[in-house]
Amino acid sequence: MSQNLHPLAAALDETLEACPSAAFSLLSRKGRAIYFPSKGILGQSAQAKGSALNATIGTAFEEDGTPMRLPSVMEDMPLGPKALLYAPSWGRPELRKRWQEMEVEKNPSLRGKSFSLPVATCALTHGVSVAGHLFLDEGDQVILPDLYWDNYELVLGHAYGAELVTFNTFKDGGYDVDALLEKVNAPGEKKVILLNFPNNPTGYTPTVAEAEAIQKGLLKAAQSGKKIAVLIDDAYFGLVYREGVEKESLFARLVDLHENVLAVKLDGATKEDYVWGLRVGFVAFGGKGLTPEALKALEAKAAGVVRCTISNASNPAQLNLLKAFTSPTYAAEKAEKYATLRARHDKIVSIFAAHPEYRESFEPMPFNSGYFMCVKPVGVEAEAVRQELNANFSTGTIVLSGLIRLAFSAVRLEDLEKLFANIDAAVRKLRGA
Ligand SMILES: Cc1ncc(COP(=O)(O)O)c(C=O)c1O
Do 375 and 362 touch, CB atoms closer than 8 A? Predict the structure, then answer.
């Protein structure tokens, strides 16, 4: 351990090292060194809270004691002046508590299991970055499927020097669990895995049987001595449209699996609650053998990373979401949006059933959830199809790993027929058929 380790970091590390979980040995050098500066400006300010005279933190107050503010700013700030103040680096306590309750409501098998309070991040991208900071040293490998969200390359590869090691995503129309486990069981004790369900770009979530197979395989690997951090990107959580598909987060299966498995849940409101620009996400930890003190230590480390990167996530956004999450109409509103997206998914399924000839132009990849699905053009490059669609069909798509990704989340139900007809026509045109 570094001689320059801050005493607060040393105390957190001691707590983690003393517990039966492998969490400490999974931390990166930076992860071991990070701490929450509870004795600095933030800690001293917290101690002075409620003082008659408060000359602590760098915020400004009017002569009447309310937050200093510009009328032009307040014109569009219905949450009032309190929204202008900082949120804690950990996130607003009542929001963290509510989000944790919601995690249990959405994942009933988490009930009664212990996991940390979520720490608020600047949405999922930052959550992934916090996990990179805590668990990845330069040159460390991250195991992930070959169909992945491309920003992992910047967030984990560029920023932390991690090497992205991919496994085959699909086999025989399902998830290639064996390919994942092969990478996990390859030489090396420390393994960091990144799994994202519903997946971007494929819109695939494992079936219940596949999720069980992942769980069993990870248990076996852990029993054989592998120390495994599983980063679970739940960005599109809750948007599962078919029976037999796993509805809960993999986190619920892993939080009490084995002392050698640390589960890191990265989730947030962005996609689930249709608030892409609000920028509120969360990171939470769970794992067999993590004592309540060890969970707190991981929270403190995550909050330390938040403090050293963005200081704190947006307070107006956190206030807004807390209000929504406690609204009596929230559940019904979410059900309505889910139904809208599900209808689009179902429509795509029915379009494929009605147009068997489309199979001559493109092969749909397995999909059952989320915002996206992918098709693989037959006999022509995906990029050529994308350009043709753009140039001559007024149709925008994304090409990733040789596939065309379609965000049906962004296409009206009534336009879906046209979308696939255009792809079919573009492929046939390019092939000269
Ligand atoms: C799989 C996945 N993770 C994370 C993110 C980032 O989400 P956020 O906007 O909350 O940072 C995205 C956004 O596209 C995503 O697809």
Answer: yes
